[in-house]
Structure formats: C-alpha cells, structure tokens
C-alpha cells in the first residue's frame, strides 16, 4: 500500500528497469541540489535511493579557477559537458541551478521541470556587524557577479568592487584575511548548504533585484525519454514554472551579450504575475528598470513585453554588442 509522505501522494513507478542516472556538477551546492532531487523522486515513487545513481561531471567552469568566468568564454561553461552526457545517454536527467542556465537548450534536450523555489534574495555577508547600508565610505566589496557589481556601484559609487571567485568556503577565507570587507551570495545557496554559521543579512528585492531564476533548481532531460518525462512530471512545481517562464523570456529577449548586467524577478499574486526587471551599465553609471503585471498563464508574453519596454528606453550604446 502506498503511504503518504512529506511530498504528498505517491505515484506508480513508470518502468523500474535500470537506475535513473542523475548528472550533476561536483560542487557542494550542486550535490545538495542533486540529493534534493533524488529525495523528492524516491519519496514520490516510494523507491529506495538505489533506484537512482548520482553521476558527478566536471565542467570547464569547474576546472578553470584562476580566471574571471567571462574571460574563459561565458555561456554554457558549467553545462556543456553535462548536456553532452545527457545526449549520449551517460546520464538520464541533469540537475542545474537555473540561474546559471542559458536561455536555450541544445536540440534534443528539454528543461521544463522545476523544484519549489528557495529564497530568491541575495545575502550580504560580512564579518563586520550591520548590512549593506552600514558599509563605510570607500569600502572594498568582493564579487564576481557582473549584476551585483553594477547594482552595488549604481547605489554606492564610492565602493570598490574586487573580483571574488570560488566556493563559499574560499570566499569566507578571503573575507577573514581582509581581502574585502563584505561579499554577496544567494540566500538560496547558503540555505541549501545549511550554512547556518555564515552571518548574513538578507537584501530585500527593492534594494537589489536578484538574477533571473535565482533560487530555482531545474531538471533537464532528453526530449524523447518517456520514463524521465513521467518521473519529472511528478515532482514539478507549477508556480515556480510560471515565474521562470516570465523571467527567462525577459532574459531571452535581452540576452544579446553576457556583458550586460540583467536582473529580473517574477512573483505570483493569485492568477497574476508581477514581473520586475533591471538592466545596467557594467560600471553602474546607469540603470533602467521597470515592471509589468499580466496573467499567470502567459509569463512568456509578459517577459517579452517588459524586455521590449526596457530596450525602448535604453540608449543605443547601452548594450556592448550594439
Ligand atoms: N553563479 C553561481 C551560483 N549559481 C547559483 C547560486 C546560488 C543558488 C541559486 O541562486 O539558486 C550561485 C552562487 C551565488 O550566487 O551565491
């Protein structure tokens, strides 16, 4: 008899046969996300963990640690090898931080399953007391995110931003060594890693709009793999899907260059989506932001409309590729 579980109803298992191979990067956050996916699948189908195999894949982005990401070549840096493994059958599903995912997937793959979204806010992290507003004049802040860097400089042109790569542990070490006074991380990552010892102040959306898809886990599969399709349908979170549809359409329409800092967030209010977006010059000297509301059933139109609105207000030289 099926027993209820923390994720709700149980489902009949499509085809048990072989273990479902779950591909992931090997970073602590990526592994936590893969374990969460496995836990949800095994709960919803009442399957033992052995029915799933976690396959760790090293990507170019994981191998090159000494250079800023944009120098190595932007898009797909953390996904190419994983998508190759999906295509050649080495894995059956791939678990991703949606924030890092290109807006379009390779032919033959589909990315339309999302787990319930975590906290979407950024976290201000510093060994000193206080939040962003308490940063002294001229303080040094570490970040390798183009978006956070531009937003920060837009609000506080007096600050100095230095490049900060590496995992949470590396960044905390840099803070304790005094390389920077503070840094920014996603609340979602800190929460998923259960890093309760890292002192953080949540940055409200009004102060700093997060990256598109921040806090969302997405699961990719082969388009013709029926077993994976059925299994993933059972753990998909509809509200997260509707929000990401709006945010990712917004990004897709704007995404001519990874040199352009972009922020975007959709919230669901009943049957309505509320989408906010911001584009900035990399040095923070100019910011263009806006918002639109529309039916939750058509996030795509909403995302495209807000992007068109911001593009219409942007000077010709705003995007470096123009
Ligand atoms: N670009 C790296 C990345 N990709 C996803 C997260 C955090 C988790 C998330 O937003 O889902 C992070 C690190 C960070 O921004 O602190």
TrEMBL record:
Residues modified as S-(dipyrrolylmethanemethyl)cysteine: 258
E.C. no: 2.5.1.61
Lineage summary: Bacteria, Pseudomonadati, Pseudomonadota, Alphaproteobacteria, Rhodobacterales
Listed InterPro entries: HemC, Porphobilin_deaminase_cofac_BS, Porphobilin_deaminase_N, Porphobilinogen_deaminase_C, Porphobilinogen_deaminase_C_sf
Pfam families: Porphobil_deam, Porphobil_deamC
Subunit description: Monomer.
Domain Porphobilinogen deaminase C-terminal: 243-311
The species this protein was found in: Cereibacter changlensis JA139
UniProt similarity note: Belongs to the HMBS family.
Cofactor binding summary note: Binds 1 dipyrromethane group covalently.
UniProt xrefs under PROSITE patterns: PORPHOBILINOGEN_DEAM
Superkingdom to which the source organism belongs: Bacteria
Note: The porphobilinogen subunits are added to the dipyrromethane group.
BP-aspect Gene Ontology terms: protoporphyrinogen IX biosynthetic process
General function of this protein: Tetrapolymerization of the monopyrrole PBG into the hydroxymethylbilane pre-uroporphyrinogen in several discrete steps.
Porphobilinogen deaminase N-terminal domain mapped to chain residues: 20-229
Stretch list, region Disordered: 1-22
Top enzyme class: transferase
Keywords from the UniProt entry: Porphyrin biosynthesis, Transferase
Catalyzed reaction equations: 4 porphobilinogen + H2O = hydroxymethylbilane + 4 NH4(+)
One Gene Ontology term of the molecular function aspect: hydroxymethylbilane synthase activity
Pathway(s) it belongs to: Porphyrin-containing compound metabolism; protoporphyrin-IX biosynthesis; coproporphyrinogen-III from 5-aminolevulinate: step 2/4
Protein name as it appears in the record: Porphobilinogen deaminase
Necessary cofactors: dipyrromethane
GO cellular component: cytoplasm
């Amino acid at each position: 008899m099926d027993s209820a579980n923390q994720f709700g109803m149980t489902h009949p298992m499509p085809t048990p046969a072989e273990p479902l191979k779950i591909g992931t990067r090997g970073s602590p956050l990526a592994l936590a996300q893969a374990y969460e996916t496995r836990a949800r699948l095994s709960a919803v189908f009442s399957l033992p963990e052995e029915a799933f195999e976690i396959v760790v894949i090293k990507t170019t982005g994981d191998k090159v640690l000494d250079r800023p990401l944009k120098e190595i070549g932007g898009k797909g840096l953390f996904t190419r090898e994983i998508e190759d493994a999906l295509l050649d059958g080495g894995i059956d599903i791939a678990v991703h931080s949606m924030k890092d995912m290109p807006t379009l997937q390779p032919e033959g793959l589909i990315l339309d399953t999302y787990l319930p979204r975590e906290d979407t806010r950024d976290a201000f992290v510093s060994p000193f007391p206080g939040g962003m507003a308490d940063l002294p004049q001229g303080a040094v802040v570490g970040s390798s995110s183009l978006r956070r860097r531009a937003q920060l400089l837009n609000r506080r042109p007096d600050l100095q931003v230095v490049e900060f790569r590496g995992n949470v542990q590396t960044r905390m070490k840099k803070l304790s060594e005094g390389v920077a006074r503070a840094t920014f991380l996603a609340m979602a990552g800190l929460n998923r890693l259960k890093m309760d010892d890292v002192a953080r102040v949540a940055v409200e959306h009004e102060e700093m709009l997060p990256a598109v898809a921040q806090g969302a886990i997405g699961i990719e599969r082969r388009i013709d793999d029926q077993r994976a399709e059925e299994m993933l349908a059972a753990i998909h979170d509809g509200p997260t899907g509707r929000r990401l549809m709006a945010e990712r359409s917004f990004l897709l329409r704007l995404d001519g260059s990874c040199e352009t800092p972009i922020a975007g967030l959709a919230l669901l209010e009943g049957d309505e989506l509320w989408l906010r977006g911001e584009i900035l010059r990399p040095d923070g000297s100019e910011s263009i932001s806006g918002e639109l509301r529309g039916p939750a059933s058509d996030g795509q139109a909403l995302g495209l409309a807000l992007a068109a609105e911001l593009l219409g207000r942007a000077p010709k030289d705003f995007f470096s590729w123009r």
